[in-house]
Amino acid sequence: MRQMKSTEAQTTSFELRGFGHPSGKQTVAALGQILPEARFFDDSVDDIRATRLVEFQGDAPETDASDDQTWSDAVVVYRIGQCEPVQLIAEAMARGAAGILTEQLLPCPLPQCIVPDVEHAAARIEATLIGRPDRQMLTVGVLGSTGKTTASLLVAAVLRDAQIRTAYQTDLGESDGVLQTTPEHGPQCGSDSLRWLAEAVDAGCQAAVIELTDADLRHGRHDAIEFDVLIATGRTVAGHDFGPTGLNCALERLTPEGVLILSADDQVGMRSARDAGVRMVTYSLRGAADVTAKIIDQADGVTTSLVNYDDTTIAMETMLSGGGMLADQLASVAFGLLIDRPLHRLVETMHTMRSFPGRMQQITCEHAANAVIDVAGNPTAITSAIRSARASKGQGKLWCVFSIRETHSSEDLAEVGHLIERFGDQAVITTSKDQKRSFLKRSHDVLDGVTQCAAFRLVADSDRALQWAISEAGADDTVLVLCGASRGNARTERLELESLANNIRKQQNRQPKKDRAGGSRPRLRIVGAR
């Protein structure tokens, strides 16, 4: 395997783990060993052993068992407020359940395992029962403030290019290595995520890439999974409750032989990694790192850069424009080097990636303003999107069309207003159709961060806001559409992004032909005067 020289003066290497299928032999889970923090309530037992979990949906158990089948090998999961305890106890006793997993003591003679969080406990038990699928293949977690989805899909592309069957789970969709889907549910965590990993193992996958959110990490929703590689994108953002960051929580789930791929420009993240004593591979657009890049040109939606690793430098041309996208590509290149892929092949893989829906997605037009769609939902991501759009806009102006979402706090909106005023040339504030009633109040939250309020145009109808911006923008201008789609689940997001892109194309085609700067004759630049 490739040996990489790290900026932390240590040697890092990584090998792909061989995959295997569950043997089919029934696995017995001893709850006392899996959950050392648990307490058991029964005079006759000090542990509970089971081969399966039974969960209730309302008043009915989620099981395919027939009415005459006993639950002597099963632990019943009780979630407070989600099912009727009397019905659950009666069902468990009638079928002779081995015990009950719960957060509070129930008036029941059956053995009970009391845990602080039943979701976390159920996921850890599930991991044992299905044979720890995260240990049967290479498990990669991608986290950060920006670029998680892009980096996850790029890493999956690198693995596929290496002829490694790969499963992935992102905001834009998921794959079990065979079938790609855009599910109607949100990101999977806990037991659901483990079952998805088990399905990927059954499909013959050797690797799995999982997009991780800070909220899920800080709430322990991935505590049943161990990661071989963690990739941190953007920068580490501390929470408002003085608790651990998402990166701190993720590092606790990194295997002892695992590797962290991190931006050398993220000082908070670098400090956390050093404190945790993990092995690192770094990337950077600005300073020294294991893998570096320098942008040499951004024009016509194409970014040209020089990528450097060790003593090799290769030019990379990609349609994924902007510094934020380039950082995600560098993280993916660093991962590819870990699995012994040649640098030139990794650069070719990055070149083949044209665009991702809603991730600095470019919609060009010959006779009207070009548009860029980005679903950035927090100030950090919005900053990255605006800066990338401004750097690649050319001679024209940057128009920012920002859609207020229900998830935005007043503080976030004020910060976004300040960012748009600072980096944009023209600003249009709008909202989603279901948020029109609160638009006036919420738009004032945006204006709280603005100095020149009169420069902002407020249009409650998002279609009309987009129509006005494209009609008023010049042919050399760029219209950046921010937060233009809901991020509840992959299917909804993809459908809304497709509808938004079609609407933009329709508005562009309606515009009369506008001459770009210079027309048919080159324009002379005045460099001096007598």
TrEMBL record:
Residues 358-482 form the Mur ligase C-terminal domain. Its EC number is 6.3.2.7. Residues 506-530 are annotated as: Disordered. It is an enzyme of class 6 (ligase). The keyword Ion transport does not apply. Residues 144-334 form the Mur ligase central domain. GO terms for molecular function: ATP binding; UDP-N-acetylmuramoyl-L-alanyl-D-glutamate-L-lysine ligase activity. This is MurE-like ligase. Gene3D superfamilies: Mur ligase, C-terminal domain (3.90.190.20), Mur-like, catalytic domain (3.40.1190.10). Keywords: Ligase. It comes from Crateriforma conspicua. Pfam families: Mur_ligase_C (PF02875), Mur_ligase_M (PF08245).
